[in-house]
Amino acid sequence: MVRDGAALGAFDVLNMRLKLIRTGGVAGLAPPPVVVDTAALPEKEAQRVMALVAEARFFHLPAVVRSRKPQPDRFQYSLEIKRKGRRRHAVRCDEEAASGALCRLLHAVQTLKNLS
Amino acid sequence: MKKSHAPCSIPVGCPVCTIIPSHMLRHLSRHGPAALREKAWQTLQHSERIRGQRDVLAGLVAGRWGVSPGSKRRTIYDLGHDTVLPGKRVRGEGDAKNRDIHVNEAYDHSGVTADFYRQVFGRNSVDDQGMRLDSSVHYYTDFDNAFWNGAQMVYGDGDGVVFQRFTKCLDIIGHELTHGVTQYEAGLAYQGQSGALNESFSDVFGSMVKQWKKKQTVAGADWWIGEGLFARGVRGDALRSLKAPGTAYDDPRIGRDPQPAHMRDYVKGGADHGGVHTNSGIPNHAFYLVAAALGGHSWEKAGRIWYDTLCTVLRPHATFADAARGTLRSAGILYGSASREQDAVKSAWQQVGVL
To answer: Which among B195, B198, B239 has the least Cβ separation from residue A27?
Structure first.
């Protein structure tokens, strides 16, 4: 696992709230935001999400990750993560501009059920 | 990659386009000095397009690139739920059917789309130079999308709750490939009005591919985009309707089709690159109105007007008004000023509030 400078500890695993909004796509739908509380996830799932957050170095990403030349029909995402007692961080990005690790995080969160 | 030489925007009387006889251009394009070959080729390509005599070019393409006329070069890759393109090659041109329906649909529908472009507009693949048609299926897990990444098509399986597999619909595959055509022609920037035009051209040609395959008249076609893509239980017929934008679906889980059919309902700014999949309803409906006014097969007249406009008139930052003026001009060149066809175009853009 890639080490994240902002040190995600066991405390964070149980206390992260993720909110993901997805827009765009060939269908142009705007599905309801996915809101996930890691405390409400099975521990294994919570660990997986935390690992992806660390791998994507999420808390070090700029607020906007834009594609210089947007690809047609791609998704755009807006992911916000709050940790208890810390500043929230939010990233808006074009899917094609996201790193592999950030993409894996976004796709994984999108497929989680709403658990808050 | 954009062509280095933008097509001349003056179809009649442009010295470069008309002063050199076409047989000489043809000779130059094959045997002239390298720099001239390219110029001659582009000039030929452009003037032939204007005259709608693209067949002449098929032989040239064959001579120049060794691609025989009518040939397609499709390759389908299986990502196996990964996202690293293109994936494992599973079916090439002429190969027998695969056991996987996603693979076969990607193969068949991209083939029909290529045939449509060649037979109706004399276009040789996405870039008009015989480009390979690559498609990757099974992108990620339950992925609810299909897209053109600038070089190939990519399809998700759908989550089975809202969407079925994205290879299912011919018009969706026609839509994706048309994004490629637009990239090589007008190069419409994917933001705001030019982005909505980019989306609209994909819907318009996607719909025409389906109508052409089914041999439907304007009156007989359903004008849906992505009919049958929704999973069972979703309240909706399709993703969009060119005939009646805003009526394609209305479901408690996914909301209501937000497409406007008139400028008064244009959605400003915001998500999806400024609502490119929403505001495309306006030019979509304009195309429908032209086709409906002219009758017969949509691709014969309305489609020709739209195709010529995409290839010879529009620029990357074109607005809806530019598209309206451009299609008016194309209709005038093709069918004459104040012709029935040009009147239909004018009336359509007026009805959607652009003119």
So the answer is: B239
Query: pLDDT-based confidence at A113, cuts 50/70/90?
Result: low
> A101 to chain B: nearest residue by CA?
B83
Question: Structure tokens of B194?
Answer: 């030019």
For the A10-110 domain, the top CATH level (class) is alpha beta
* Residue B33 Cα to chain centre, angstroms: 34
Terminal-residue alpha carbon distance, chain B: 33
| ipTM attached to this prediction | 0.88
Catalytic center residues of B: 176, 277
Query: How far does the CA of residue B232 sit from the closest CA of chain A (Å)?
Result: 16
CB pair distance less than 8 Å for B172 and A96: no
Distance in Å, alpha carbon of B316 to nearest chain A alpha carbon: 12
Among chain A, residues having any CB pair with chain B shorter than 8 Å are 23-31, 69-76, 96, 100, 103-104, 107, 111
Backbone angles phi, psi at A37, to 5 degrees: -100, 120
DSSP SS3 for B285: helix
- Strand duo B224-225 + B240-241: pairing: antiparallel
Verdict on whether the full-model pTM lies above 0.95? no
Residue B69's pLDDT band (boundaries 50, 70, 90)?
Answer: low
Sequence ranges of the domains in chain A: 10-110
Residues of B with CB under 8 A from a CB of A: 83-84, 140-150, 159, 162-163, 166, 172, 175-176, 179, 190-191, 195, 198-199, 202, 226, 229, 239-240, 253-255, 258, 271-273, 276-278
Q: What is the per-residue DSSP string for A26-39?
A: TT---PPPEEEEGG
Quick: pLDDT tens for B139-171.
999 999 999 999 999 999 999 999 999 999 999
Q: Among candidates A67, A75, A72, which has minimal Cα distance to A29?
A: A75
pLDDT surpasses 90 at B13: no
What is the tens place of the pLDDT at every residue in B307-344?
Answer: 999 999 999 999 999 999 999 999 999 999 999 999 99
The distance of A23 to chain B (nearest Cα, Å) reads: 6
Is B249:B234 a contact under the CB 8 Å cutoff?
Answer: yes
Query: Are B150 and A69 in contact (CB < 8 Å)?
Result: yes
Structural domains of chain B in order of their starting residue, each with its CATH number: 15-51 (no CATH), 74-168 (3.10.170.10), 192-351 (1.10.390.10)
Give the tens place of pLDDT for each residue, A68-102.
Answer: 999 999 999 999 999 888 889 999 999 999 999 99
B159 contacts in chain A (CB < 8 Å):
111
User: In this structure, are residues B354 and B282 in contact, taking their beta carbons and an 8 Å threshold?
Assistant: yes
Given a cut of 80, whether residue B100 has pLDDT beyond it is yes
